[in-house]
Amino acid sequence: MTRVAAWLLGCWLLVACTGSNGVLPPSGGRLYEVLLVGDHEGLVRQMLTADVEGLPQSEPSFDVSVVDSARFDASLRLSRNIVMVNVDPTVYTKPHVGYEKNVWAKPQMVIRVGAPSLSQLRRNAPAIASALRALLNRAEINKTLAMMRHKRNTKAEQAIRQRFGVDLWIPVDMVASKQGDNFVWLSNNATAAMQNIVVYRVPTLSPTVSAVNAEVARFVAQRNEVLGRAIKGETDSMWMTTVEPTVDRRLVFKNADDRSLWLNQKSLQHAPMTIYRGLWEMRGDDMGGPFVSRVLLPIDSARATKADGKAVVVEGFVFAPGQKKRNAMHRLEAVLYTLRWSEH
């Protein structure tokens, strides 16, 4: 989210509370599915169906169903994600984004988008879109983690804790593994959409505002060195590497932070972590896909000693030729949000 979008989000979120305190029925709807109410001009739909960042093909951020306000009945109010649009100069003097939780069902996110005119809604579309996607993505990450909470590979989690000194949730279906020096690779070995998690150590990265591109280059070099050595193809002449930017491939990252050129890198608030997105490929073989990585830095001298002065990197990557990858990548990204230094 840009600084402007973050500022507007803070200004617009005038309603952010939980609805009824009574017993609510369960909500319905698939992950990353949104019911859009009252969007007569299709402006908000365009915001919600913008391409997901960091995928090798075009996929919408959300699967959107549209309904008129007059047809928004009791059954539709049970949807898990609802975005309601209202353009009315008697109600709004400026663009507004507000949200409520658990209004008609549970769990539920109801977001209200308001503006005094279509022109103001259109003029503020980029910031409104960032705010909407941030709210809905956070809700879906929370839903994904709630689904995963009691369905995890605790044996793998314990092994990672002992080896790297970090806590990390591992999905229960990730049972295939490979281990090496300062490296663990876990996979669900699915035939349609194979999801993978790798954990490894690298020399500590020191983020600086003036050297973002240098930091990205260093991350890529370290990633290529570790994963090129650890993840091989059918022969040793095939290995994993990071896709270099080209004019065509840059279109995949058209929403990326300009400072990082082709990898979307942003420091995460209140945590000494950095997140990267990009594409991987198998050198010497026709394989590839998207990845998302998170770097956990030692936060004090005790952590630095425990981690041998090195950062811990956790990466999720997908191999799903000819398949949609959005939900699989979002699932792996949700796993990365559980990464933290272990207290044990």
Automatic annotation (TrEMBL):
Q: Which domain of life is it from?
A: Bacteria
Q: Name one Pfam family in it.
A: DUF4837
Q: What is this protein called?
A: DUF4837 family protein
Q: Which organism is it from?
A: Hallella faecis
